Target: Pyrophosphate--fructose 6-phosphate 1-phosphotransferase
Amino acid sequence: MSGTFVIAQGGGPTAVINQTMVGAALEIRKRHPGAKVLGSIHGVRGIRDGNYADLSSIPEDRLRLIAATPSAALGSTRDKPDAAYCEIILNGLKKAGADAFIYIGGNDTSGTQQILTDAAGGKMAFVHAPKTIDNDLEENDHTPGFISAAEFVAGAFLSVDLDFRALPGIYVGIVMGRHAGFLTAAAAAWQLDPDSGPHLVYVPERPFSAAAFIDDVRATLDRHKRCIVAVSEGVSTADGKALVESLVPPEKLERDAHGNVKLSGSDLPAALERALAEGLPGKRARVDALGYMPRGYVGAISAVDAQEAFDAGAFAVKVAEEGGGSVALQYDGKKTVLKKVPLKNVAGKTRHMPDDFMKPGVNQLSEAGMTYLRRLVPEKYKVGKPFV
Amino acid sequence: MSGTFVIAQGGGPTAVINQTMVGAALEIRKRHPGAKVLGSIHGVRGIRDGNYADLSSIPEDRLRLIAATPSAALGSTRDKPDAAYCEIILNGLKKAGADAFIYIGGNDTSGTQQILTDAAGGKMAFVHAPKTIDNDLEENDHTPGFISAAEFVAGAFLSVDLDFRALPGIYVGIVMGRHAGFLTAAAAAWQLDPDSGPHLVYVPERPFSAAAFIDDVRATLDRHKRCIVAVSEGVSTADGKALVESLVPPEKLERDAHGNVKLSGSDLPAALERALAEGLPGKRARVDALGYMPRGYVGAISAVDAQEAFDAGAFAVKVAEEGGGSVALQYDGKKTVLKKVPLKNVAGKTRHMPDDFMKPGVNQLSEAGMTYLRRLVPEKYKVGKPFV
Model:
């Protein structure tokens, strides 16, 4: 395998996806001197269009600087190739003379690699290297990108809780995540003490009721004089509809090319603001979406996450040498270990947050959930307890 | 002046307002051993209600930990006392046996100190110590709290620009600030190169036109394939109305106790999203409010800002000894220097961003604006230029 390696980045960027790309590129350069390393521009679109950055020739110090830079330096894509599109990709890879294709992304990306593996019939190695702030890949204890995103979210809620101690009111922070609640749960990682926010955490794994939400907020205000809430943008009502569908008039709902309701944007914050204004009139309430900050804020890159992402990229080269598969970050009880797992175990599947990570019947993290978070997102900043 | 000092914190919290409080408390303890140092809880409300934390007796290491903690540890208030309320405060201060009152806040806070000075007739020293992320105090080159907030905003826009290189589209980030554009302008501080966002910056000092905004965004998309926009929540249309008033139906507008239109919340993001969807149909567009993050994100506290805020608190004690006044951070051409200035020079006034900080006729920072930002918010993170 001294020939040609293609690397691409797919889906939403993360703070450390470039570590994985550079980890793979440098490992190829080390283990396969003389090999061509092509970085496909904008995910599989670059393969389709023959548009590559030559990663073989770029000085290592420039690559290492890019590794430390958030977001996907090769560009990314939301394309989810079907069989026909995969045929085009396969032809593109053949044209480039590729022996292996390492695609860094989430469960859609591993799905693409599964289709390509089946179509290529063993003539090329297809590797999926994990990446997602959602932390929702099967076979993984956690995924590269999650820890940095979780640190941002934990820091955001610690900061907002301190802010609302000074000027009390209701704060609702909306966190990215369509199906898995891990990132929203991370809001609780750095709670100062039992009086600290987030006092309420709503994850997609549990049905959301607007009436119960108002009751929860009211009870929290009575107890803590303020109420800090973390809501996943993917929360659904008991009928399985996304919350935004229940709160926003149908003619105003936006849908993407796949028919999925658009969760981002200001519809959900506006709807929750209205619900709070009606349910708790006269109370100071602020609803913000954390937006894109968790997935790539330059000031919240975890060193552990960066190293794990780099190592996952390097490990992907070994998986390519062995014929392909998916790289998984597993936990052996003491440390994170890298494993090769079959693509089909990850492809198109969603790992949900275990039910016992939340207290039964209460929208708060359980001890099991906090143990997981404390291991991955240990306290990073020393803060003093305010007088209020 | 060996007697009693009262310290309070007013207005919106910042990342370093506790530095100023602790700087003052420790300086009093050093220069006036045996003096009582009372921290009023929730600004002037604590004086009204006789509610204090005893800052004389708290171990220095706990105070230093609080200093490094964002938000106002004594609690804050939005109360803007009139003459009658000031009479109540004055009586409260007399009851506490206060010789001096150091109030940390913005221009409203210095206004309160001005009224109290006039009412007390020289029997007590009233000091205003500056604090505001808006950077809008007269007599100051910049204000404690601004640099940390500006670093967060600069980092946020650097990060979002990298994100939108990977997945192109339109991004609008709404930044706090009713009257002064400094913090929104800080979005440009860490631009990587002339191709980098924010490509458009809208500040309250310049009239905003929704039609021109759409034209600007369209032209930027043509040139850069993406468009990153920073908008101050305080931008106004040519008729002097807040933008949110022009875009939101009157019956939906929220106003505060002072009759000011509520700028925060999701009305403005929702309205800008609608304007983009109508003006540039089919384009991917995301509008987010940065919300509370700039004023107290635990991961974006500037060491320079922290030190200056601490020093301003210590200097406030000297100003108290001299009979009162306002502490100002000025620039002598080489470094920041602390000066005592009359309260009336600051009280109730708003410093706007100089007109020449923006290019004429273009919504971008000028060289003069960039020079100011680069001095206060120098590059903090090394990032590599992406391939896209």
Q: What stands out?
A: Chain B touches chain A through 68 residues (CB under 8 Å). Residues 104 and 129 of chain B are 5 Å apart (CA to CA). The domain at 4-145+298-345 of chain B is CATH 3.40.50.450 (Rossmann fold). Chain B has two domains: 4-145+298-345, 150-294+353-376.
